[in-house]
């Protein structure tokens, strides 16, 4: 019995150690820092031309993208956090799994086509979403946005949308919970 008891104890101890190791590994993975941020793209102040976009997936922090002309571009798996998009244009662009957070004053998304778009505006006025295709997008704090004719099917409109123009916008299955229109 003594031998049998020690085998059981060793088995239980080994199981406890394995469980603790698994828990520790999970904590280490959960605490791992996000992917390193790429150097911010450069915006030509005269033309708005953008150079230096990294290959996807790319994460950018605190970039000055004001006046950037990204019209007609394809952005796939791109995240901009805390960035300034004042006067930038994404007109006629294809935005896939793209996240934009920061300042959006007069940012133009006219006729943009998106899949997996998330926009969180720390400050915004006059964002243009006219005739954009934004199904399932998560759009936060776009006060005064011009979303006339936009397809917002299944989108989530969150935060303040005071003064937004939604004439002819498609809002089928859109979530307006928490939106202040």
Write the layout of secondary structure elements.
Blueprint lengths: L1 H30 L10 E2 L6 E2 L6 E4 L12 E3 L1 E7 L9 E3 L2 E7 L7 E3 L2 E8 L12 E3 L15 E5 L18 E2 L1
Parallel strand pairs: 3-5, 4-6, 5-7, 6-8, 7-9, 9-10, 10-11, 11-12
Antiparallel strand pairs: 1-2
Quick structural gist:
The chain has 181 residues and is an alpha/beta fold.
Tell me what the structure shows.
The protein is an alpha/beta fold and 181 residues long. The chain has one helix spanning 2-31, and strands at 42-43, 50-51, 58-61, 74-76, 78-84, 94-96, 99-105, 113-115, 118-125, 138-140, 156-160, 179-180. A 7-stranded parallel sheet has the order 3-5-7-9-10-11-12, with no helix packed on it. Strand 1 (42-43) and strand 2 (50-51) form a beta hairpin. The longest helix is centred in the N-terminal third of the chain and has 30 residues, at 2-31. The model is unreliable at 14-33 (pLDDT under 50).
